[in-house]
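From the shared-data thread, chain only:
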Amino acid sequence: MKTLVLDDEELKLLLAAVRAYLDDFGHEEADVLRSVKQLLAKLQAEASQQPA
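Structure, as tokens:
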């Protein structure tokens, strides 16, 4: 397991990048699509725990 420390702005940028990747992805490889969705869910959960 790896740990990546991000500040709030970096987390927002990473979330936007993963969402853009998901939107632009060809959706032909279900395993990659599933992995990206799982990563996005983890990032969103972390973002929701950050103080506003």
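The chain has two helices and no strands.
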